[in-house]
Design brief:
Shape: elongated
Order of helices and strands: HHHHHHHHH
Number of strands: 0
Length: 196
C-alpha cells in the first residue's frame, strides 16, 4: 500500500510497582548467574531492557537493589512459614511444619539468598539492621509454640542461626534434606522445651 501510514500500538508504561518487581526479578537472575558483586545499575538496565536512567527512578544505587532484593526474598520466606504454621492443624507437629516450610521456601529462593549471603557479604546486616528476622522468630516461638516472650528472645537467634547453617550445609552438598530437617526439629524442640 503506497503512501499508507503504518500505525503501531503505543508502548504502554508499566506501573511503578510492576517495573520495580521486574527490576528486582532481573537483579535476582543476575545475582544468581554472576554474583552480587557483578550487579551494577547499568547492567541491570541493559538486562531489563530499559534505559540507563530508569533503575535510578526506583533505586538509589546497586547496593539498594541488593538490599531490597534480600528483604523481598526473606519477607516472602517468612510469609510462607507463617502461613504454614497458621494453617497447620492443632494436633500437628508445628515445629516440623515450620522447618519443612522454611526448607520449601529456601528451595524456591535458595539460589538468590545464597548469592546474597555469601561469606563476607554485608547485605543481610544492611538489609536487617533492626534484626527483624530474629523478632519474627520470637513471634513464631511465642504464638505457635507457646514459648514465653523472654525465653523466645533468648533462643530466637540460636534457632535462626541453626536454620541458616542447615541450609548452608545442604547447599554445600553435605547431609540430606530429610536428615537436616530432622536434626533441626530435634534441636528446636530441645530449646523450646527447655525451661531456660
Amino acid at each position: 500500500m503506497r503512501g499508507a501510514a503504518v500505525v503501531s500500538e503505543p508502548r504502554r508504561r508499566m506501573r511503578s510497582d510492576d517495573r520495580r518487581r521486574q527490576l528486582l526479578d532481573t537483579a535476582a537472575r543476575l545475582v544468581v548467574e554472576h554474583g552480587a558483586a557483578a550487579l551494577s545499575m547499568e547492567r541491570l538496565a541493559s538486562e531489563a531492557g530499559v534505559s540507563k536512567a530508569l533503575p535510578y527512578r526506583h533505586f538509589e544505587n546497586g547496593d539498594e537493589v541488593l538490599v531490597e532484593l534480600f528483604r523481598r526474598e526473606t519477607g516472602g520466606l517468612g510469609r510462607e512459614v507463617w502461613r504454614a504454621l497458621r494453617d497447620a492443624s492443632p494436633d500437628s507437629d508445628r515445629i516440623g511444619v515450620g522447618v519443612k516450610a522454611y526448607f520449601d521456601g529456601v528451595v524456591d529462593r535458595g539460589d538468590v539468598l545464597a548469592a546474597l549471603s555469601r561469606p563476607g557479604s554485608t547485605i543481610a546486616s544492611v538489609a536487617d539492621p533492626d534484626r527483624a528476622g530474629v523478632v519474627f522468630e520470637v513471634e513464631v516461638l511465642h504464638r505457635f509454640h507457646g514459648v514465653p516472650r523472654d525465653r523466645a528472645k533468648d533462643i530466637a537467634g540460636m534457632i535462626q542461626g541453626a536454620l541458616v547453617g542447615a541450609v548452608g550445609t545442604l547447599h554445600a552438598g553435605f547431609g540430606s534434606r530429610d536428615q537436616l530437617e530432622a536434626d533441626l526439629v530435634a534441636l528446636i524442640r530441645g530449646l523450646v522445651d527447655s525451661p531456660g
